[in-house]
Amino acid sequence: MAKGRWWFGFALAVAGVAALLAGVYFARETGEPTTGEMRGKDATALFGIALPDTKGREQALTQWKGKVVVVNFWATWCVPCREEMPQFVNVQRELGDRGVQFVGIAIDQPDKIDAFAAELNLNYPVLVGGYGAIELSKALGNRLGALPFTVIVDRAGRVAQTQLGPLKDRELRAIITQLL
Amino acid sequence: MRPPQTEPGRRFAAALAWTVAALWTGAVAAAGPKLLEPERAFAFSVQALDEKTVEARFAIANGYYLYREKLHFSVEPASLAAMPTLPSGKIKDDEFFGKVETYRGELTVALALQQAAPGSKVVVRAESQGCADAGVCYPPQVQSVTVTLPLPGMPPGAPVAATPARKSWFN
């Protein structure tokens, strides 16, 4: 019996450690989960605005309406933002002609944006947002105003998904493919 | 919890069930809202040590960090007698910005004041920028605390926690 207890205790300990590791793993993988409250709503906050690109030209977001638009709020000072962007470049290249349009909104300075865009061979437009862009992201469901924050909008202009924290490549492709 | 039954098989099954339940709980806990508001992740407080020194303190939540070079302090209506000496942080190699230093846990910085009247109130402001290990970064935030400087020879004031953060824009 004593031996049985020991065994059970050991199993509990193993399970506890496994649970802890699982928690840490999931937490690291996903960041804050997808916020659902904006899903299905019109992305009016997004399509009503225009922001300058790094050359100072105003770009209205409505120009991309009708496509599957992936709006990514990011900054060069945000490491997790920079880390997920190469996958955006890949997906834009692979699915762009099927109607996917990535648009970056950087909470940053134009020279830094350009430097990073060049390093990455960025193949989609980046607009320059000030603190107002953080407010815009909050209007789209970014409760904490943190980065990266990504909004996926369907062809009808409705929010299909929002995500605070990095998007997994597989997840991103699954969502986009469904909307094409 | 029920004591283990006789055969090892049943014990194993119980342990397995427990593991699955624990894993599931872990996953659900991870899926729930868990990221902190920036002012909680980087809790700012100030203590007046004497008539011309205040101590700024960040209590950085576990799993969060602040960037050393994004940390700036100012005081009003007095001014800083010198650039505050920031402790060395942990060096991180950033492929875009090069070597950067980060702080975790407790961070205290002594601020020497000049033109501060003993017994008067001063506002201490900190601008900071940090991230969470979970994979998000917070925009720069400004937090401020008002403390009363003690008269010469009097004991230090009590630590005062920051009022809700103000929006900020980086330089």
Question: Describe it for me?
Answer:
The complex is a heterodimer of chains A (180) and B (171). Chain A is of the alpha/beta class and 180 residues long. Chain A has 2 domains: 1-30; 34-179, Glutaredoxin, CATH 3.40.30.10. Chain A is 45% helix and 20% strand. Chain A has a 5-stranded mixed beta sheet. A two-stranded antiparallel sheet of chain A has the order 1-2. The longest helix of chain A has 29 residues, at 2-30. Chain A is elongated. Chain A starts with a helix and ends with a helix. Chain B has 2 domains: 1-34, no CATH class; 38-161, Thiol:disulfide interchange protein DsbD, N-terminal domain (Immunoglobulin-like, Sandwich). Chain B has helices at residues 8-31, 38-41, and strands spanning 42-50, 53-60, 64-67, 72-76, 79-80, 90-94, 98-103, 106-114, 121-128, 130-132, 136-137, 141-148, 160-161. Classes of the chains: A alpha/beta (180), B alpha+beta (171). Chains A and B meet through helix 1 and helix 3 of A and helix 1 and strand 11 of B.
How is the quaternary structure best described?
heterodimer
Could you give me the name of the CATH homologous superfamily of the largest domain in chain A?
A: Glutaredoxin
Task: Name the poorly predicted regions of chain B.
Answer: 26-33
Helix content of chain A: 40-55%
Give the key terms.
heterodimer, A: about 180 residues, alpha/beta, Glutaredoxin, 2 domains, five-stranded mixed beta sheet, two-stranded antiparallel ribbon, 6 helices, about 20% strand, B: about 170 residues, alpha+beta, Immunoglobulin-like, five-stranded antiparallel beta sheet, 13 strands, about 15% helix
